[in-house]
Specification:
α5 packs across α10. The protein is built from eleven helices and ten strands. The protein has two domains: about 80 residues; about 230 residues, Bira Bifunctional Protein, Domain 2 (BirA Bifunctional Protein, domain 2). β3 and β4 form a beta hairpin. With about 350 residues, it is α+β, with helices and mostly antiparallel strands. Bound molecules: 3,4-dihydroxyphenylalanine.
Length: about 350
């Protein structure tokens, strides 16, 4: 019997060591120490052991029972520790977390594309220009005097004295005219940058759409009609527009375009500052100096240009009160535009 006990001591310990999980441990506990287990049946066999040896064998067997019980307990603890540090077992066959919905375009992009669509309908095509721009295209070629305040470091992010982040999409006019013969009717959407402190109506980056039409007999009346068609198509109603005289270095004459306030229909409210009108863009007839900078022959062509802020148009259309909401990518805000636009 002593040999059997010794063998079981070694063999039992090996089997416990090999147990891979809690269920293995429990079935080993039954196989070794359960009512019909191996140790238990040895204990039952004690009655056949000669009297002289029985107390010693009994004590051996009890010791073995205690040892195997302790080994089972500590192996169980080891397995539990390991499971904790490894985390739950990964079941790759389980279905994943379903996505909460398909992604959609950002409202700014949707507005930008729908503005472009309206101009495509009038025969415009689309062009682009660089966001990192030469001071020459952003200012000089657009007839900005050397001491114009817009060149000031306060407004412009300069990369070096000759290179800046464009502050407007107007430089794309000059780049395009340098390589395109009239007649041309184009729009240039894109991101622009200004060194501004952010508040509800200012952001250091925002979007503009520039428009340019050049041919031999383009007039201010063509500009007015083009803008009216845009406003009617984009804002849906017969909103009146008006031109106010203004100054831009690159147009002469220059105007600011207002449309009747979408909120109060001209009566005067908080949104339009009680004026009944909302400013929507700058525009004018292309200045001869700009044609000259682009290399066009003198006195041959006339043209109109306009530039509008997409952010402002989007905010007016959807009643967004703070431009920063358009750049924070807060899904609670963005999800409101799902399927709306
Ligand atoms: N570039 C002007 C701005 O950022 C907007 C503008 C005004 C563009 C008049 C034009 C224009 O093309 O003719 O304030």
């Amino acid at each position: 019997m002593k040999d059997t006990i010794d063998r079981l001591r070694i063999d039992g310990a090996d089997r416990i060591k090999a147990a891979a999980n809690e269920a293995d441990i429990e079935s080993l506990r039954t196989a070794l120490l359960g009512r019909k287990g191996e140790v238990t049946s040895l204990l039952r066999g004690l009655k056949d052991v000669p009297d002289a040896e029985r107390p010693k064998m009994g004590a051996e067997l009890n010791r073995l029972k205690g040892e195997l019980g302790a080994l089972l307990d500590s192996r169980l603890e080891d397995l539990a520790d390991k499971a904790e540090t490894q985390g739950p077992e990964l079941d790759l066959t389980l279905p994943g977390t379903p996505p909460t919905g398909a992604g959609t375009n950002h409202p700014l992009l949707t507005v930008l594309e729908s503005v472009c669509d309206i101009f495509y309908g009038m025969g415009f095509s689309r062009g682009i220009g660089p966001e990192v721009e030469l001071d020459h295209y952003n200012f000089t070629a657009l007839n900005f005097p050397d001491d114009h305040p817009a060149r000031d470091i306060q407004d412009t992010f300069y990369i070096d004295p000759k290179v800046c982040l464009r502050t407007q999409t107007s430089p794309v006019q000059v780049r395009t005219m340098e390589v395109t013969e009239p007649p041309l009717a184009m729009i240039f959407p894109g991101r622009v940058y200004r060194n501004e402190n952010a508040d509800a109506s200012h952001s250091s980056e925002f979007y503009q759409i520039e428009g340019l039409v050049v041919d031999e007999a383009i007039s201010l009346a063509d500009l007015k009609e083009t803008i009216d068609i845009f406003v009617r198509n984009f804002f849906g109603a017969q909103e009146p527009t008006r031109f106010r005289p203004h100054y831009f270095p690159f147009t002469e004459p220059s105007v600011e375009v207002d449309m009747q306030c979408v909120a109060c229909r001209g009566k005067g409210c908080g949104i339009c500052g009680q004026t009944g009108w909302l400013e929507i863009m700058g525009a004018g007839m292309v200045h001869p100096n700009v044609f000259k900078a682009a290399g066009y022959p003198e006195d041959k062509y006339t043209g109109f240009a306009f530039g509008m802020g997409i952010d402002r148009i989007a905010m007016l259309k959807y009643g967004v009160g703070d431009i920063r909401l358009l750049y924070e990518n807060d899904l609670r805000f963005l999800n409101q535009f799902r399927g709306v636009l």
